[in-house]
Amino acid sequence: MKKKWRFISYFILFIFYLIVSNFASYRNPYIDNIIISAGIYFSIIDIIFAFYFLHFKSSFNIFIGILLAYLSLFLAFKFSDLRLFENYDAYNIKTVIFCNAINSIILWELLYQIKNKNIR
Question: What's the pTM value of the predicted model, to 2 decimals?
């Protein structure tokens, strides 16, 4: 995949993460914990992108999508615990949302580079 298309795909992924994070913040009557509901929404997006980017077996794409979603969510919450932007974001909500999107894009690029190194 060319760099231009990969950049556009990552930008679309970033926009999807920002939109879905808004949906994940609403109360879901079936899922009480907001971290689990956000993880489910982000997992769905990552599974779709895994099928688009990786083209591995279906079960491996689903596993990678779920793993990347929860790993990026975990890293985002750990980054928000540092309280670096406390003056701008008192409750660290925006920090978690942007850090989650950026972590996901970094992990996707890392996974894409690993895939390309193994194929060649």
Answer: 0.81
